Amino acid sequence: MITFRITLLGNLKQKLDRKELLKHDSKIFRISGFSEILNIPPSRLDHGTLDNVYDPNDFLEIVTPSETGEIVIGIMNYKFSDNFYMHRINTNVGIISLYEIDFTLLNAGISIERFILKCIYEIATYIEVYGTMNSDQIYELHHRDTRGCLFDLNGDQKDVVYNTDEPIICNECLGKIAARQTKEGFISTLQHELKKLKRPFFLRVESWIKSHPFMAIAISIAMGIATNIIYDIGKLTAIKIYHIRYPEQQQCIPKKFPQ
Ligand SMILES: [Zn+2]
Question: What is the DSSP string of 11-60?
Answer without folding.
Answer: --SS---HHHHHT---SSEEEEEEEEES-PPPP----SSSS-EE-GGGHH
